[in-house]
Amino acid sequence: MACGFGVCLGCAAPRSHGGFALVCRQGPVFEAGEIDWAGLP
Ligand code: FES
């Protein structure tokens, strides 16, 4: 993580139902099914 407060978008993770989650603001803990693991770099 770069900024840690939702500005740089460096921590964006694809959600399984579309869109992205900011891990620094909305995580760091997620249900496994919430994240599109295949879409991660
Ligand atoms: S670390 Fe910058 S937006 Fe999350």
Describe this structure in words.
The chain has 41 residues and is mainly β. The protein has one domain (1-41): Dihydroorotate dehydrogenase, electron transfer subunit (Dihydroorotate dehydrogenase B (pyrk subunit), domain 3, Ribbon), CATH 2.10.240. It is 10% helix and 15% strand. Strands 1-2 form a two-stranded antiparallel ribbon. Strand 1 and strand 2 form a beta hairpin. It is globular and about 25 Å long. It starts with 11 loop residues before the first strand and ends in a 15-residue tail after the last helix. 0% of the residues are buried. The structure holds FE2/S2 (inorganic) cluster. FE2/S2 (inorganic) cluster (FES) binds next to loops.
Which key phrases capture this entry?
1 helix; binds FE2/S2 (inorganic) cluster; mainly beta; 15% strand; 2 strands; Dihydroorotate dehydrogenase B (pyrk subunit), domain 3; 41 residues
Structural topology:
Elements: E1 12-14, E2 20-22, H1 23-26
Antiparallel strand pairs: 1-2
Q: Give start-end ranges of low-pLDDT stretches.
A: none
Mean pLDDT: 94
Radius of gyration: 10 Å
- How many alpha or pi helices? 1
Largest sheet: 2 strands, antiparallel
Q: List the strand order in the largest sheet.
A: 1-2
Q: Which small molecules are bound?
A: FE2/S2 (inorganic) cluster
Q: What fraction, in percent, of the residue positions are helical?
A: under 10%
Morphology call: globular
- CATH topology label: Dihydroorotate dehydrogenase B (pyrk subunit), domain 3
Give the second-level CATH assignment, the architecture. Answer: Ribbon
Strand content: 5-15%
Reading the helices and strands in chain order gives EEH
Number of domains: 1
- What structural category arises from helix and sheet content? mainly beta
Question: What name goes with the CATH superfamily?
Answer: Dihydroorotate dehydrogenase, electron transfer subunit
Give the terminus-to-terminus CA distance: 14 Å
CATH class reads Mainly Beta
Q: Based on DSSP secondary structure assignment, what is the total number of beta strands? A: 2
